[in-house]
Every structure is written in structure tokens, then in C-alpha cells.
Task: structure prediction
Amino acid sequence: IVNANANSYAIHQQLTGVAIGPLLRDAISRDPLEGRANVTADLTTTGATFDALKRALAGTASLVVREGTIKGINLAEIARQARALRKGGVESMKAVKTEKTDFSELTASFAIRSGVAHNEDLSVRSPFLRVGGTGDIDIGEGAIRYVAKASVVASATGQDGKPSEAVRGLTIPVTDGKIGT
Result:
């Protein structure tokens, strides 16, 4: 719904089986994910400029991606280095464009107010990793403040395996990361 006189916009959309990479490139000028997604959005905004529209964005959104990839970080490699991380052998790891983490399912929902998308229920599942997280994506400022916790599955039983005690609670903070350009 568009009201050109008031510069207000509303979207109530449900997309099924959409390629998430191109959708994110159009929405945030980045494509940190690949895969087929189901996306639900119920959003409103008002503003005279594109920046004002981003800062006034409000509503809800949810995402389910199956058989996908997170670009820029290899969580399996981080898990392999978990003992070194726990002992302080590695202070930090940076995202590298060529790195990636494959997953079987990623789900997340967002409450959006004043251009900030807040998430508390990130769930990423792969045969050997589980990732949960919480944080904010500041659409208006183009910044992300997020903390993810990864656990390694202790056995080859796949999705129902239990996390290994050796790496339980490995925390990967993402702070002041920039999104978009």
C-alpha cells in the first residue's frame, strides 16, 4: 500500500521458495546468505527520503532458509579451533569473503521499530553445528550488533546429536559490523 501524499508505505507479503541472496542484495546491498527461503513481512514506513524511510521502518518479519550458506564465516573451522580459543590462543577471527558455513536450516524472526530489527530466536542447524543468537540489525544506520553462540554436535547422529562439552558455549560476537554501503 502506497500513499504518495503522505510518503507512507506498507507491505504485507509472504514469499515462498525465493532465492534469498538476490533478495538481500536488493534490500540491504549485501547477500550474507544463499539458499531458498520463505519470507514473511508486515512492514510500514514513512519518510521523504530513502534514509528517512529506513529509519522509520516498523513491523515484523520472519525467515526460514533451507539448504543454505552463511557467507563470510566458517563456523566449522572456528569449532575446530575451539580449544585454542578457550585457552586464549586466538584473540579474534575476522570474516573472510571466501569463507562460508553450510546449513540445513536457518530460522529467525524480527520485531522492527525505528529502523532497528531485533532478533532473539536465531536458529541455525547443520549436521555438525547448532547456532543460536540474539541482537540488532540497525537498518537506518547500516550496522549490526549481534552475538551468536555455536555448539558442535558430539556425534555423527546428525540433527539430533548433542553438543560436545569441549566446545559448549563457544561465543562469536559480531559488534559494530557494517552492512550495506
About this structure: The chain is about 15% helix and 50% strand. Strands lie at 2-3, 8-19, 33-46, 58-71, 100-113, 116-125, 129-138, 143-152, 170-178. The mean pLDDT is 80.
